[in-house]
Specification:
Layout lengths: L18 H8 L8 E11 L4 H18 L4 E8 L2 H4 L18 E8 L3 H17 L7 E16 L18 E9 L5 H17 L4 E9 L19 E8 L7 H5 L13 H4 L3 E11 L13
Antiparallel strand pairs: 1-3, 1-4, 2-3, 2-8, 4-6, 5-7, 5-8, 6-7
Length: about 300
């Protein structure tokens, strides 16, 4: 299981760390509560590995590979049962191939201004976890990226939970939306249109309390080989819709794309704006930590 750190001010027995280093690090640099950055990772366990993957992630990796790390201060896991997977669109997605791939989603907040510090730790700890055979290999990373926070749009203004509460508040569902701008120079326009025009109207009177918007950053060159490099770093935006209801209860009214009255073709308001296109809209519900609930509903 790897070495245990010693206690005290010097090196502990068995190769422990220098405890005084932690005091030095805590005394400098940003330490606010805002989610300046995020890790958003959508993963597909290989067929037959669903239970093994779920237990590994919940019993070990969620903590040792994420929450125990410096500056990663909130996290939550989500799951898409088969009926939720079948609600996804568009059918030909540039993110998930096939569009139903990626039945588990994990979301983590990282303290603003601490991305570089966190990345040094996460690369080091994941190399160690691999050496100690504590990484479940029978899985595929469908959409995994560290991301920088761009904006948060609230339904109720100053009332209610803030974005830094979002992963701890008992939201009943989450919708992951990925959009691409028409080109690198137009992502700012797309973001401005979403924040000022599209999202306020979509949130009004809806069961979605907020939408938190991020843009992906490239993964480091020494990332784990099983995680592919991030696509769309110059054009893409990732939207997380936090829902107060099960997404199935509001999907048709709030998220399913409307059909053109004449042709029956599904319409995309982002594409209609001329600024970009929707690459994926995918609903999830929260997992129940410490259980295998929903694992038998993935296929």
């Amino acid at each position: 299981m790897g070495e245990r750190g010693g206690s005290g001010s010097g090196s502990g027995a068995g190769g422990g760390t220098r405890s005084d280093v932690y005091g030095e690090l805590a005394a400098v640099g940003p330490y606010g509560v805002r989610p300046g950055h995020a890790l958003i990772t959508m993963v597909e366990p290989h067929p037959g590995q669903e239970y093994a993957y779920n237990r590994w992630y919940e019993d070990d990796h969620y903590y040792a590979g994420a929450m125990a790390m410096p500056w990663m201060y909130a996290g939550r896991r989500w799951v898409a049962t088969r009926d939720l997977q079948l609600l996804r669109f568009p059918g030909k997605s540039a993110v998930a191939r096939p569009v139903t791939a990626g039945c588990y989603l994990s979301t983590y907040w990282i303290t603003e201004g601490r991305y570089a510090d966190h990345m040094k730790w996460t690369v080091g700890i994941n190399k160690r976890l691999n050496r100690d055979s504590r990484v479940h290999q029978a899985r595929t990373h469908v959409f995994t990226a560290f991301q920088d926070h761009e904006a948060t749009v609230y339904r109720d203004g100053a009332a209610g939970p803030r974005d830094f509460h979002a992963l701890d508040h008992p939201y009943r569902g989450l919708v992951l939306e990925v959009v691409d701008a028409e080109g690198p120079g137009r992502r700012g326009e797309l973001l401005e249109w979403l924040v000022a025009r599209q999202l306020p109207g979509a949130l009004a009177g809806s069961p979605a309390a907020m939408v938190v918007i991020f843009r992906p950053t490239p993964l480091p060159g020494d990332r784990m080989t099983y995680v592919k490099q991030v696509e769309g770093v110059d054009t893409r935006l990732t939207l997380l819709w936090f829902l107060e209801c099960d997404p199935r209860d509001c999907w048709t009214e709030r998220f399913a794309p409307p059909a053109d009255a004449l042709t029956g073709a599904l319409t995309d308001p982002v594409a209609a704006s001329g600024l970009g296109r929707v690459e994926l809209v995918a609903p999830f519900i929260p997992t129940v930590p410490g259980t295998d609930r929903y694992v038998d509903q993935l296929r």
